[in-house]
Amino acid sequence: MGQEAIEVSTGQVKAAVEKGILRSTAIGSCIVVAAYNFKNKIGAMAHIMLPGSAPEDTAEKTKYAADAIDELINIMPEAGLEKGDTQVCLVGAANVLEREDDTICNANIEFVTDILKEKNIPVRASALGGTERKSVFMDIEKGCISYTEAEDKEKTLWQVSQLN
What we know:
The structure is a single chain. The chain is of the alpha+beta class. It has one domain: CATH 3.30.1330.200. 16% of the residues lie in helices and 36% in strands. The chain contains 2 helices and 10 strands, in the order E-E-E-E-E-H-E-H-E-E-E-E. It has helices spanning 65-75, 104-118; strands at residues 5-7, 13-17, 21-27, 31-37, 42-48, 86-92, 123-128, 134-139, 144-149, 155-159. The strands form 2 sheets. A 5-stranded mixed β-sheet has the order 1-3-8-9-10, with no helix packed on it. Helix 2 (104-118) links the parallel strand 6 and strand 7. The protein is globular and about 40 Å long. The protein starts with a strand and ends in a 5-residue tail after the last strand. The model has no long low-confidence stretch (mean pLDDT 91).
């Protein structure tokens, strides 16, 4: 029997403990932050659409990087983000419309990586940029984060055995 697939759509932050597959598909200029706590087998994903913080009157605050990352940290129950316990990978930020004047992809990359540095959360691996849509998958039980780009086969981005 396969594990339960938990879809993480744009603006959502979700977590799973011990079992399940968190997945986010059709990622264009958005960035998915995939966090995995290997000591407690807890994974969480935030599908971030925009850099910055949400305006006060915004209902879907977790579409914005600052709010989504705060929620990601809060949603990992009892795990804590002690240094070295949680691994973070980033997927997305593709200029899928291939616009020369596109700035959202780079703004998302810069803002998300700056927030993670500020919070002392290291990025272990990433698949960012390009012009093709991506999808990302986190197998909680195996401690593995993989992704696809366009119609390519699934590739491993990071797994627990890669710990330094």
